What we know:
single chain, 9 helices, binds alpha-L-arabinofuranose, alpha+beta, elongated, 32 strands, nine-stranded mixed beta sheet
Amino acid sequence: MNAKALFTWIGAILGLLVTQALAQTKPAILTIHIDTPVSKVSPILYGLMTEEINYSYDGGLYGEMVRNRTFRANKSNVPYWILFEEGDAEAKMQVDRQTGPSEALNYSLRLDVTKADPQNQAGILNQGFWGMALMPNSTYKGSLYAKADSDALGELSIKLVSDAENKILASTRVRSPTANWTRYEFSLKTTAMQPLSANHLVITVGHTGTLWLNLVSLFPPTYHDRPNGNRIDLMEKLAAMHPAFLRFPGGNYLEGDHIPDRFEWKKTIGPLVDRPTHPSPWRYQSSDGMGLLEFLEWCEDLNMQPVLTYVEVGNEDYFDRSGSYDGRYEQFYKAIKAKYQDLQIIATTPVKSIRPDVIDDHYYRRATEFFHDTTHYDKTDRNGPKIFVGEWATREGTPTPNLGAALGDAAWMTGMERNSDIIVMSCYAPLLVNVNPGGMQWESDLIGYDASRSYGSPSYYAQVIFAQHVGDVTLGSNIENGGSKLFYSVTKDTKAKRIYLKLVNAASHAQAVDLKFTGGTLAKTGTLVMLNGRSTQATNTVEQPTNIVPVQSPLPNIGSELHYTAPAYSIQVIQLSQQ
Ligand code: AHR
């Protein structure tokens, strides 16, 4: 290379570097017209989508601690139940299809005890959902259906025992079962102990005879103390999301892969003993303890609307190649509207036969796909059907999404907020995942847990901070020098005169943003809620639940302008008050 060419080459490289440096430091200028509402924000924009997947209910939100409480057998055994023989006790267990406590549960587990005494008991052991989480000084409420061949069988002994030490952590007795199926209640109280989930349940007798059992149930203290209720830690995490509605149950769980897999709500109501349970499309049996009533109680507890003023017909019916959905939707539409004019009928794919009230759109994407599509609904026909973004997620990170995914989510949410005159509702999916081996059927789920611990992913916290600062109108604004990885939405709570600016900097470098406010005066100090990290791969886990969490701080020096710098890989909400 000659000297001239070398200089030209060096010059070009320097020019490129200078341009890049300028691009990184050149502030974006974001002007916000604080008294100019542009469009309405739906009051029910953020909600929850739920289905039985990833052990979301059984082994998740639903508090039941006994796994396979109805003794469903496979070809070789009764999963999660083990024969227990103490000392030289001897017994045999098998499923008995001749007798059960109800029409729905018309079979049972039969235990034939051929050798036992009070010191050498025989019975069965349940392993729980990857253990049974126990806390000190707590009461666990249980029940079971039982009958015996004779009174001589004696009392049932029920114990919670630690796996490693075989230590009895709580114990009680249930009176001798009779010859008729009867429901027995019991409670098990722990004393001082280390919180631990490697525990199991043992039910034994100290005499020979035959015992039949079904629907063996045990609950920890539940949210709002509801019987048959939900796990407290998970409900608290959901409450922090300020969800406005619950889509229940949605996803493939609603229709199932085959007719027997579908969610038949009529079989999920009434006493648990009248619920037959059903196979779900996610390859495990649903206990249906989380039935229609429990969904409504969940709504009541978190002050959510059940998607009831709205009714959805089906799920992702664009996969139906038969083309039958169009006509079926029309039939449902007309039949429902004939009786309930106010109900809004959601279609899962565009239909031609009739104009749907609402279309349910689903998006499972990488972060960059969301970055490139935040304007997706900007040009949607405002006279057409409303939109329900009924499932969406950035799928990066497993079992739960990482910070890169949260950035994709947050960018997408800015677009949804800007368009929430037409997007009436949106909900992330899937919501929950049991992180134990075999617990997950779908990668990238918002909240992870095991038997005793739970955590929110960075995507969860992005949802939390967006849903905590919704507002009721979007404000007029414009941005210059924004860059391709800077996203924002600005809304206002008109009654409280609060302005919420969400800024997402998905770039690997900090981004200066000069904020200019017109049309009113702001209080001198605002609030900043910041969620950020050093790498897109940074994440939270059940062992390290708080690596990426929002941090709140006061934001001083606000006038008609504010020189702000959004850190690399950051999602922030700036809250301002109009005076
Ligand atoms: O959210 C997981 C699955 O994704 C849902 O069950 C289904 O609707 C979609 O394909």
